[in-house]
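## Example pair
The file below holds two records. Each record gives the amino-acid sequence first, followed by its structure token line.
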Amino acid sequence: MAAEEIFQEITKALERGESVALATIVKVSGSAPRKEGAKILVKPDGSTVGTIGGGTLEATVIREALQALAEGKPRLLHYGLRADQHPEDLGVCGGDVEIFVDVISPPETLLLIGGGHVSLALAKLAKELGYRIAVLDEQSDFASKERFPFADKVLAGDLASLLESFPITPHTWVVIATRSHETDALALEKVINSPASYIGLLGSRRKVALIFKRLREKGFEESLLAKVFAPIGLDIGAETPEEIAISIMAEMVLHKRGGSGKPLSKLHREG
């Protein structure tokens, strides 16, 4: 299968918000079923496009690719193709192959539900960090290309309808920051069961408690509520919309990259 067809499948997967793994033979020593550059694309459901030679080697690489997808990390594999020499040998060709498995993921999207001052500041910051920006609001004054000229998608209208049709994937980060308890609660109800990587709710502890109480009364389980970052952001004493945006983005980076959230100077002294 031509490489162009594989890349077409990659494009389609990214448009669906789906990650895929691309395994490429990068080095061959001796005899092997395929030469350098041979590729196989592995989708999350285990289906494939292309081939690196079939047989036990290909089946093993597909398993490794699925594991790479699950972890979100690339890997370099080495296999011998010699019979009866080592347990990991996968054939009788007599050679060795190195295969690089890359995980290709769609761009991360920051979905801002509410187009107020904090959302505007956060959108500017997130755009600098490479996020695609989507803004939803009930009012066109707050969800407009004039207000968010750098956003990739800006939609105004009924929030329930907009959220029911908006594609939320594991590469979506959601921040709820509307102008009322009611719409905040509505938005959270619509996204809390989604596969979003991060869901944050802007508001005071009292506001969060009231919204959580409402969701509990509607039957939402504690395990779902526990995955919501609320009140959103890290405690840095933020007051202005720009400072609050920094506290939110810092929490998002912490969630994505890991870390303690402690000052580096304190870790240095402890260390």
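Second record, same layout:
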Amino acid sequence: MQVSGATAAGLAVSGLGFDLSPVRSYAQTLKTKGAKETTTICPYCAVGCGAIVHTSKKGDGRVINIEGDPDHVINRGSLCSKGAALKGLRENENRLLEPMYRAPGAKEWKQVSWDWALTEIAKRVKKTRDETFTPKNDKGQTVNRTTAIVSGGSSALDNEECWIYQTLMRALGLVYIEHQARI
């Protein structure tokens, strides 16, 4: 009775278009096979999720795959939609690779060298600091500060990097030091 019931059920299912014959399967080669594996931290928000980046073994630096780091203490291998799309941050034909500058009043941006851009930033920071530096307040207390420069830090920095960055900003006399984790 049980065998005839199973036979009837098998015939009914096969009549619906299911094929119960054995199927050959083939293993796929992983796209990350032989790729260089590097751990990193997602730069988008202040959570600091860990990610594993697989880059091409050809040495061209192309990103093949990005996935959550299962050994990372914060996200344990999961990534949000922005973190999962990190590959687009690196592999994007619209990504700027050189600094751009638009002079005051100009309508067009122009490409400049990294040396020029960094030198110009340093000159402007020094000029602003020198013009607005306050060694003492109205009460005669030593304050050594400038309120004309503001710093907005990055969530991609770890604690040690934040300490170094904060120390540099304080050494310049900045009072307004913010961090993306709080914004």
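Notes on the second record: The domain at 36-90 is CATH 2.20.25.90 (N-terminal domain of TfIIb). The chain has a mean pLDDT of 85.
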